[in-house]
């Protein structure tokens, strides 16, 4: 008489574990910039794509590439003095700063011009950019630290639109990252271990 409820309990527990696997998905990638201490330098690398749906073109023009201003939420990576042309869109929401630092110019800078201005809610992409086209860039601040640049370690995210893929820009400073599949697998593993323990208990 008790066999059926026990089986149902086991199946329920297994269902919870499987649901955890699929409900704890990695965050939509969008455009991700990581800022790391590499030896005596601070290095920023960016990659991903941007979906412009839900944004409004504010201006097309030029900006100085390779700049960080933490106290008003600016990070501009890539581009060059020979190609500083950007399209600036408005409509993002998120942090207005990621530290207390003033403006610092990168020692070296390369790749596609992508930037964020948290205080005013703007995002910059290369002039003529087409949504969801892959982008990548990097910049290096020689003889610098997070402290000297005035940036606060953590993860900062700006979003827009309706939450479609690539409608977000994430800045990761230091070791705090965007959740990945590893945490999901660990969660499932814990669930399965609990299931095995429950089955052993039910046999008693």
Description of the molecule:
By secondary structure, the protein is of the alpha+beta class. The chain has one domain (31-178). It has 3 helices and 13 strands, in the order H-E-E-E-E-E-E-E-E-E-E-E-H-E-E-H. It has helices spanning 3-23, 146-149, 181-203, and strands spanning 31-38, 41-48, 56-62, 67-69, 74-77, 85-90, 103-105, 108-111, 114-117, 122-126, 135-141, 154-159, 168-173. The protein has a 7-stranded antiparallel beta sheet with strand order 3-6-10-9-5-4-7, with no helix packed on it. The chain has a 6-stranded mixed beta sheet with strand order 8-11-2-1-13-12, with no helix packed on it. A hairpin with a 4-residue loop joins strand 9 (114-117) and strand 10 (122-126).
